[in-house]
């Protein structure tokens, strides 16, 4: 089981107490590629689970299924591939060393491992149903860093069964209304992405945001294909 990519801070003021002086800053850890899937049911509910209390990494936080991209993810089968638009967006934001499909397939795999929800049948998931909604890179000088891609999918289009199960990493996995989800104890990046999802479900034309730490502050740009 891999770790969920949700350790981001969006408020620059929160970073200052944790950043040592330039002279003593350790070498920044290279972020690991990661992927997350946000499943939506009926256009008004999202599926989330709670991190176990005993976990060192983000205990008790509510998150979407997700984790590190494994080397074999790019070779997993898929019933249909990503749309050209989604593939182009996944290549944006600097050098991308993996095939775009690896991120989508990692998100599908983690959803199966963490929530027991399977996308597609023997032929694999239909990646054309997954929409790319955000990319975020954890700030430097953190003990864990991720370069995470967030996908959105309609549960009725990609799942045969929308009843999640409790796993070792995500507990109490269930469907929440958008209002209920926003009231949970969420990591800052999860809350940010949830607002992006709400805007899309409301019919707004939203370009995927790319969040990263640049020149001592957070930066946000919108990606275009």
Keywords:
nine-stranded mixed sheet, Nucleoside Triphosphate Pyrophosphohydrolase, 22% helix, 225 residues, alpha+beta, disordered N terminus, 9 strands
CATH class value:
Alpha Beta
Q: Strand-residue fraction?
A: 25-35%
N- and C-termini, Cα separation: 32 Å
The total number of structural domains is 1
Helical residue percent? 10-25%
Average residue-wise pLDDT:
86
**What does the main sheet amount to?**
9 strands, mixed
CATH third-tier fold name: Nucleoside Triphosphate Pyrophosphohydrolase
Assigned CATH superfamily: Nucleoside Triphosphate Pyrophosphohydrolase
CATH architecture: Alpha-Beta Complex
**Oligomerization:** single chain
Number of separate strands? 9
Instruction: Look at the helices and sheets and give the structural class.
Output: alpha+beta
Large-scale geometry: globular
Q: Runs with pLDDT <50, length 5+?
A: 1-7, 11-21
Total count of helical runs of at least 4 residues: 6
- N-to-C order of helices and strands: HEEEEHHEEHEHHEE
Write down the Rg. Answer: 17 Å
Descriptive account of the structure:
There is one protein chain. The protein is an alpha+beta fold and about 220 residues long. It has one domain: Nucleoside Triphosphate Pyrophosphohydrolase (Alpha-Beta Complex), CATH 3.90.79.10. It is built from six helices and nine strands; from the N terminus they run H-E-E-E-E-H-H-E-E-H-E-H-H-E-E. The protein has helices at about 10-15, 85-90, 100-115, 155-160, 180, 190-200, and strands at about 30-40, 45-50, 60-65, 65-70, 130-135, 145-155, 170-175, 210-215, 215-220. Strands 1, 2, 3, 4, 5, 6, 7, 8 and 9 form a nine-stranded mixed β-sheet that branches. Strand 5 and strand 6 (about 145-155) form a beta hairpin. The longest helix has 16 residues, at about 100-115.
């Amino acid at each position: 089981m891999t770790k969920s990519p949700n350790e981001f801070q969006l408020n620059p003021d929160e970073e200052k107490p944790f950043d040592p002086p330039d002279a003593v800053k350790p070498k920044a850890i290279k972020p690991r590629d990661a992927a997350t899937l946000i499943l939506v049911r009926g256009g008004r509910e999202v599926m989330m689970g709670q991190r176990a209390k005993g976990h060192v990494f983000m205990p008790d936080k509510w998150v979407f299924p997700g984790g590190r991209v494994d080397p074999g993810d790019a070779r997993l089968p898929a019933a249909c591939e990503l749309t050209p638009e989604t593939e182009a967006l996944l290549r944006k934001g600097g050098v991308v060393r993996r095939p775009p499909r690896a991120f989508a397939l990692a998100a599908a795999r983690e959803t199966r491992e963490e929530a027991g929800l399977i996308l597609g049948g023997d032929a694999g998931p239909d990646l054309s149903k997954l929409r790319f909604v955000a990319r975020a890179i954890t700030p430097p000088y953190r003990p864990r860093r991720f370069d995470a891609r967030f996908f959105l999918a309609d549960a009725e289009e990609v799942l045969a069964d929308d009843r999640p199960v409790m796993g070792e990493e995500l507990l109490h996995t269930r469907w929440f209304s958008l209002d209920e989800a926003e009231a949970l104890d969420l990591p800052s990046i999860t809350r940010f992405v949830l607002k992006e999802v709400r805007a899309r479900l409301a019919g707004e034309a939203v370009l995927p945001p790319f969040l990263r730490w640049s020149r001592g502050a957070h930066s946000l740009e919108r990606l275009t294909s």
